[in-house]
Amino acid sequence: MPQLNPNPWLSIMLMTWLTFSLLLQPKTLSFTPTNNPINKTLTTIKNNPWTWPWP
């Protein structure tokens, strides 16, 4: 069964992950977002008790 032979695929996978983690990830993390988040004030929800029509 050729699927069980990890010879070419294991090295390709490891090289891909190393390339991503060492070269591409710091480049993508260095980008600054164009729209900074706005600090919004939290609104409080008023809980009004329900007046039931039956006693």
Automatic annotation (TrEMBL):
<feature type="signal peptide">
    <location>
        <begin position="1"/>
        <end position="30"/>
    </location>
</feature>
<dbReference type="GO" id="GO:0031966">
    <property type="term" value="C:mitochondrial membrane"/>
</dbReference>
<keyword id="KW-0732">Signal</keyword>
<keyword id="KW-0138">CF(0)</keyword>
<keyword id="KW-0066">ATP synthesis</keyword>
<keyword id="KW-0813">Transport</keyword>
<comment type="similarity">
    <text>Belongs to the ATPase protein 8 family.</text>
</comment>
<keyword id="KW-0812">Transmembrane</keyword>
<dbReference type="InterPro" id="IPR050635">
    <property type="entry name" value="ATPase_protein_8"/>
</dbReference>
<keyword id="KW-0375">Hydrogen ion transport</keyword>
<dbReference type="GO" id="GO:0015078">
    <property type="term" value="F:proton transmembrane transporter activity"/>
</dbReference>
<keyword id="KW-1133">Transmembrane helix</keyword>
<keyword id="KW-0472">Membrane</keyword>
<dbReference type="GO" id="GO:0015986">
    <property type="term" value="P:proton motive force-driven ATP synthesis"/>
</dbReference>
<keyword id="KW-0406">Ion transport</keyword>
<protein>
    <recommendedName>
        <fullName>ATP synthase complex subunit 8</fullName>
    </recommendedName>
</protein>
<dbReference type="Pfam" id="PF00895">
    <property type="entry name" value="ATP-synt_8"/>
</dbReference>
<dbReference type="GO" id="GO:0045259">
    <property type="term" value="C:proton-transporting ATP synthase complex"/>
</dbReference>
<dbReference type="InterPro" id="IPR001421">
    <property type="entry name" value="ATP8_metazoa"/>
</dbReference>
<keyword id="KW-0496">Mitochondrion</keyword>
